[in-house]
Description:
Radius of gyration of chain C: 47 Å
Number of helices of chain A: 12
Number of domains of chain A: 1
Order of helices and strands of chain A: HEEHEHEHEHEHHHHEHEHH
CATH architecture of chain A: 3-Layer(aba) Sandwich
Structural class of chain C: alpha+beta
Strand content of chain A: 15-25%
InterPro entries (chain B): Anti-sigma_ant, MlaB-like_STAS, STAS_dom, STAS_dom_sf
Number of strands of chain C: 18
Domain STAS (chain B): 16-110
CATH topology of the largest domain in chain C: Phosphatase 2c, domain 1
Order of helices and strands of chain C: HHEEHHHEEEHEEEHHEEEEEEHEEHHEE
CATH topology of chain A: Rossmann fold
Low-confidence stretches of chain C: 1-10, 430-440
Oligomer: heterotrimer
Shape of chain C: rod-shaped
Protein name (chain B): Anti-sigma factor antagonist
CATH class of chain A: Alpha Beta
CATH superfamily of chain A: Alpha/Beta hydrolase fold, catalytic domain
Distance between the termini of chain C: 85 Å
Family (chain B): Belongs to the anti-sigma-factor antagonist family.
Strand content of chain C: 25-35%
CATH class of the largest domain in chain C: Alpha Beta
Pfam families (chain B): STAS_2
Mean pLDDT of chain C: 86
Amino acid sequence: MDIRRRNNVNVVGPADAPVLLLAHGFGCDQNMWRLVAPALAERYRVVLFDYVGSGGSELAAWSEERYSSLHGYAGDVVDVLEELDLRQAVFVGHSVSAMVGVLAAQAAPERIGALVMVTPSPCYIDDEGYRGGFSTEDIDELLASLEANYLGWSSAMAPVIMGNPERPELGQELTNSFCATDPDIARVFARTTFLTDSREDLKGVSVPTLVLECEQDAIAPREVGAYVHAAIPASRLVTLDATGHCPQLSAPQATTAAILDFLESVK
Amino acid sequence: MNPLTISRRDTATGPVLHVTGDLDYDQAPVLRDRLDQLPVSAGQCLVLDLSGLAFCDSSGITALLAARQHALAADADIVLTAVPANLMRVLTLVGLDQVFTLRPDSSAAS
Amino acid sequence: MCRTGGVPEPTGTGDEAHTTAAFTALLEDSVEDLYESAPCGYLSTMMDGTIAKINATLLDWLGLDREAVVGRKRFADLLTIGGKLYHETHFAPLLRMQGELRGIALEMRRQDGGRLPVLVSAVVKHGTEGEPLLIRITVFDASDRRAYEQELLRRREDAERARAEADEARRQAEADRARLADALAVLQRSLVPDSLPDVPGLETAVHYHTASPDQLGGDFYDLFPVAGDRWAFFLGDVCGKGPEAASLTSLTRYTLRAAAHHDPDPASALSTLNAVLHERYTGGGNPRYCTCIFGIVEPGGAQGRAVVRLASGGHPPALVLRADGRAEFLPTPGGLLIGVVPGAPIGTAETVLAPGDTVVLYTDGLTEARIGPGRDDLFGEDALHAFATDHAPASPRGVITALTELLEGFGDGLDDDTALLALGVPATPSTPDPASPTVPATSHTS
């Protein structure tokens, strides 16, 4: 199998430089890194990819069984690391991908030398003594809304309404943007993202880790950043003066600076 | 298809059933039901007047045999009268002309 | 209304002034009023989503006060939780990347707890340096559209379910039908032999026409060896049709087989059958019967001759096609339907088949076939005799072939099962059979 094609792997930056593997989160694809990748690529070899089911990946390689678990996504990460024969790479994961990186580092410890967790959350649902930011009902509502096609491009309804699922290009034209994904795949990804509790996995992280959080984040509140930082002894917590869940878009310079600073410290 | 009608007339010697229409697979059970309900006493003679019979197949013949069985069980006789030519040919072919008492017309019975 | 440079307006300007005045009257609402009361929601936010401006229409839809919103809430705060998550993971990143978004389906939260399905378009307003300044958002009420989409989806799901159910029902029906057909075929095969055995010194042929492929046939035949180099054969017709007829056929066939082994006298075999059927059916008030012709043939006599002894209970007479071109019935007078009365009389006949002679047994499907323009006449024994005379001499295969073609020619005039069984002593090589012997010795049609 051609992993590079399957995961739409793109490599930029000096060939002999240390490697940064940038992993997108739920919803979009490697374009999420568009505003930070060029600056990072000045000093690092930057590897970008899409998880199977997202962006420019091969949708035919997607299966509900594999991608109903974060381990399936971690499998994609390990596949890419092995395909490029990368060792001691720095894994930069956004949102749910931060936890995917933790699992990948467990599976292939020799290939991941450090973690950058951008707005991570090991568990989105509140629990006794833990505030994830959402109740079970909240997450159910999101999943139900996705299930019913209530959210997103209304043209996602187009193929359904036109009764023409055999010609998805009719819908494609209307939703040709990088966050547009197959609704079925998006539902599975959302379910996996928001229903997984990975708190136990944090304990196994032994590599140097940067936890990047935002001042205001509706999805991963400050308490979660603090929890992750506390759970990983070898971690550094940086709070960006930014709003939203995607600092690499809303505060690209600050994000880049924090990552570079961390990389300098672990050299 | 000719509908099957059965009319009954009681005489001094026993009941006379006048059977008209088709005695076929669909309608033969009607005659058999009618016979089951028909009281026949020992020594009587059950007469089946077949002058109006338009058609009779093997199910019809089975019904006629059931009539015979019914009469014999009551120690009564059975007579077929005015048997149409077609049926006569079949009855002869299968030997039933020896089994049934056949008469040209029903008047002789009354 | 459109003026092009230099071209004078051909008609009077009085009308024009009037029209302009009318538009002014129509357009007396202000831009401010249009913003506040437009039939869609407007709002402007800072780049972090904080709401800076919102129109009355949207406040009204959501049941919110301006004071509680402006400077206090972010756009995402107006959304349902699902909408908010979607906003953070899709809407906001995409807006950042592309600078604009059109027609995104979201759900807003009303003050009363209800939901408002909306379609949202957004555009980022940039400053003179190209830096993003604020986000302008337009919100359309999509309740009707959502309901319409839901209805379409529901209809589609209903249609798919109905189609799936219909497909399943059809599959089930076909499976049931196939199973029934298999069962009938197995049962039917148990009523007649798969193929006729080879009889030394004799040629045999058979044909079975089933009136309905869904119904078990009521005709039967068989051919099998008995003691002393003799062969027994029979052919008959039970009353009724379907499974009841089949059970009667089964009883008849195996009774005759057993009786023939016990006492190979044809009349004895039929008497035994008569006793069995009478005891089983008619004696119990449920008359059931059959007609049957039973024969014993002893081939291998002088000059290849074979002696045939026949017994019949109410069955049409056998037909013999002689080598010299004659055809004759073999009457078995006095025989009665089997199973009707105890000790029923059995008719018998005997003949000798010389080389080139063929005896044919048939059921009344053949002679009772309806012919003529109105299908009012029966084919009958006379026509059968004439037909046989025309074809004599004929081998068993030859005569069965000819009769099969005759049956096919009856078309829908043939509405009963019909069985044909022929046995003959092969003609000597000097008198080749004119009819082709290529037909299979056993054939079935329906």
